[in-house]
Design brief:
Number of helices: 13
Number of strands: 39
CATH topology of one domain: Rossmann fold
Low-confidence stretches: 1-25
Strand order of the largest sheet: 32-33-35-34-36-37-38-39
CATH superfamily of one domain: Alpha/Beta hydrolase fold, catalytic domain
Distance between the termini: 35 Å
CATH class of one domain: Alpha Beta
Length: 729
């Protein structure tokens, strides 16, 4: 389900299960064991009648509330659920025991490619250079700054994340922001992985923590007003986790005295707060899948009234930025692929908007970056990103050039307004992640940092392609492909991993991965299917893969797999599929629709129980998703969603080898979805292929925290696939 995750950053694993149940016992209140030692979950009738149909959810009992999970003394249901999850973990370890050493080898191999004592490229803001750095052997970074110069300035450690994370199974630093006078740091932290943050403040002159503390906050942290004592923050609903309120806090006072300045009462909308690059305005954004609304406040006067830019209008999307005496607006107003418009600061409703860059049917306008002399426009054409550079005075208007056939690229952190230097990031299948400074006047680019692959990496040994598969309806589907030249023969004998997502208009660009080398160097081909539901080819590409056209996403992926077999990129019996979150829905659908196509499927934190989840508005994110999937209370949507919902479409038939990962504390696709899906499939399937699940008992949707722990899941997933492909070392 859920748009807030990078699809390739899949859930890491913890390899020592907590409180493992005694799997030598033949029966348990929650499950029994079959002859192979697999847990067979109990069934309890839980019917739901809707739109004239009765749906039976025999595994509803697996659902726990947050109160049950957090209780110091577990009740009987909690114990049964935890015992079942740990029994599944133990079964997975048993079935993959023969690759235990291989997993460790892969983990050490991946870890060995990482430069352990690394540092980010510094970013200048308000007289300081900000950067992060890692020390050898540590999972977490130090967040630092130096005044005036990186060469002569004294390092200040703003956040000592290794120290903050010590003693915790999970740690995430969310937003961290410094007051305009550079004296106070506000930072948000999560120690559970439920994405419910707490904000604390630090006096940077004295190095001491302030008594102020804000709870139930979003991961974005705080936004400072220009008086250096007032902050605005987004508060979450404690049940649904919806970001629904904006509050104002004054340093030195209790959170109980804070003032709510905005409440988003429409349950389909989320809200958030930020400051414009000009530092002139505080902005509140209220957004839903198809509609948005913004209001602004003078950052010099935090107690003033808020000004609405354009009242919400159904299906009107827009976002705003500020420059001199105008607001600049990226909008879909009469523009499916969006256009850039401007308006005066005091006349902001849509009848006052004027074109800066008009709508184009073949170019998607994704965003802008404003400088004093330049406007940088992020666009997408033909499936690939591009940067459009324009001078405000009209003396320059051109596109930057990039070398790879398929790549990922985007504007980086550009806090300095009065500069002709653009910071951007670039990566491709072949080119490691790179940070550049680009002189928009001279067109010279300077490589500041490229991801170092420890142990050596020669890009000349690898190749990438950007091809098109043909869907059943004749639509051309872009596919990005990478392989190692010396191991790929293009004769239909190679194993191949096909990755996909295809939801929320998220575009899957072909970026570099050091972990992926462990597959490529063993003969695997890697491919991304740029299927409908993403936005690679423009807004229509997204709209053709959502709501009542959602099945295009699934059939596109299947068609890409079949095309790769036909074109001899992959052996027919060595095609693997992978996806996470909404990509896990994709995995569940294509597994049901074309089970014989896949040798193995890796499904991470998968959204597979579409109907039950979308019927329950107490579940985080459900109400904001109706425009993505549909509302099952409406019969037409219900019938269509039911026809592809992976949990509901499981049948008595053969399925491929499947590995599922999930997290006990996941607040986005909650653990019971994949657990129920697995339990039902194990009851129904008629084959002897692997059906395995790992539930990380200490993590949520983003997985285990720490840069090294994350590699353990990749090692498990890769060992699972390599073993099935007949590659043992």
């Amino acid at each position: 389900m859920y748009k807030h995750i990078l699809p390739l950053a899949l859930l890491p694993l913890l390899f020592t299960a907590c409180n493992n149940t005694d799997t030598t016992t033949s029966a348990h209140p929650a499950f029994t064991m079959n002859e192979d030692g697999a847990p067979i979950a109990k069934k309890e009738a839980h019917p739901t009648t809707i739109n004239g149909a009765t749906l039976e959810d025999n595994y509803f009992w697996m659902r726990l509330s947050d109160e049950q999970k957090e209780a110091k003394t577990p009740d009987a249901q909690t114990k049964n659920v935890v015992d079942y999850l740990n029994a599944e973990n133990a079964y997975t370890e048993k079935k993959l025991a023969h690759v235990k050493d291989f997993r460790e080898k892969l983990f050490q191999e991946m870890k060995g490619r990482i430069k352990e004592d690394d540092q980010s490229v510094p970013v200048k803001d308000n007289g300081y250079w900000y950067y992060t750095r890692f020390e050898a052997g540590k999972d977490y970074a130090y967040y630092c700054r130096k005044k005036d110069s990186m060469e002569t300035g004294k390092e200040e450690i703003l956040v000592n994340a290794p120290e903050r994370a010590a003693g915790h199974d999970y740690y995430s630093l969310g937003g961290w922001d410094v007051s305009e006078d550079n004296k106070i740091l506000g930072m948000s932290e999560d120690f559970v992985s439920r994405r419910m943050y707490e904000v604390i403040f630090k006096n940077l002159e004295q190095g001491e923590m302030l008594p102020d503390k804000l709870t139930d906050v979003s991961g974005g942290g705080v936004t400072w007003a220009n008086d250096n004592k007032t902050v605005f923050y987004t508060k979450k609903d404690t049940l649904t986790l919806r970001e629904s309120q904006i509050w104002k806090h004054t340093l030195g006072t209790s959170q109980a005295d804070d003032v709510m300045v905005y409440e988003e009462k429409d349950e389909e909308f989320y809200t958030g707060v930020y400051k414009t690059k000009s530092k002139k305005f505080i902005v509140i954004a209220s957004t839903q899948t198809l509609t948005s609304e913004y209001r602004v406040l003078d950052a010099d006067n935090p107690d003033a009234a808020w000004q609405v830019i354009q009242p919400r209008t159904e299906n009107l999307e827009y976002s705003i930025d500020h420059y001199e005496d105008k607001f600049y607006i990226v909008t879909n107003l009469d523009a499916k692929n969006f256009r850039l418009m401007e308006c005066p600061l005091d006349k902001t409703t849509k009848e006052n908007w004027k074109d800066v860059i008009p709508h184009r049917t073949d170019v998607l306008l994704e965003g802008i970056e404003i400088f004093k002399e330049f406007l940088v426009v992020e666009e997408r054409k033909g499936g690939l990103s591009q940067l459009h550079i324009k001078r405000w005075d009209g003396k320059a208007d051109y596109y930057m050039e990039f070398q790879d056939p398929t790549y990922g690229m985007g504007v980086g952190t550009n806090l300095d307004f009065d500069t002709h230097i653009l910071r951007y990031g670039y990566s491709s299948f072949i080119t490691p992640g790179s940070t550049y400074d680009y002189d928009m006047t001279t067109k010279e680019r300077k490589l500041l940092k490229q991801t170092e692959v420890v142990g050596g990496y020669n890009p000349e040994e690898y190749a990438s392609e950007y091809i098109q598969a043909t869907a059943n309806d004749g639509t051309k589907i872009p596919v990005s492909i990478m392989y190692k030249k010396s191991l790929f023969k293009h004769d239909g004998t190679s194993p191949l991993l096909l990755y996909g997502y295809g939801s929320y208009g998220a575009s899957m660009d072909a970026g570099f991965s050091t972990t992926r080398l462990s597959l490529l160097d063993r003969g695997f081909v890697y491919a991304i299917a740029h299927i409908r539901g993403g936005q690679e080819l423009g807004r229509f590409w997204y709209e053709d893969g959502k709501l009542l056209k959602k099945k295009n996403t699934f059939t596109d992926f299947i068609d890409c797999g079949e095309f790769l077999v036909e074109q001899k990129y992959v052996a027919k019996d060595k095609l693997f599929a992978m996806g996470g979150s909404a990509g896990g829905l994709l995995m569940g659908a294509v597994t049901n629709m074309a089970p014989d196509l896949w040798r193995g499927v890796v499904s991470a934190v998968p959204f597979v129980d579409v109907i039950n989840t979308m019927l329950d508005e107490t579940i985080p994110l459900t109400t904001g998703e109706f425009d993505e999937w549909g509302n099952p209370k409406e019969k037409q949507s219900f019938d269509y969603m039911l026809s592809y919902s992976p949990y509901d479409q499981i049948e008595k038939k053969n399925y491929p080898n499947i590995l599922i990962t999930t997290g006990y504390w996941d607040s986005q696709v909650q653990y019971w979805e994949p657990a129920k899906y697995l339990a039902k499939m194990r009851d129904m399937k008629t084959d002897n292929n692997h059906l395995l699940m790992w539930c990380n008992m200490d993590a949520g949707h983003g997985g285990k925290s720490g840069r090294f722990e994350a590699l353990k899941e990749y090692a498990l997933e890769y060992a699972f696939m390599l073993d099935l492909a007949g590659i043992k070392e």
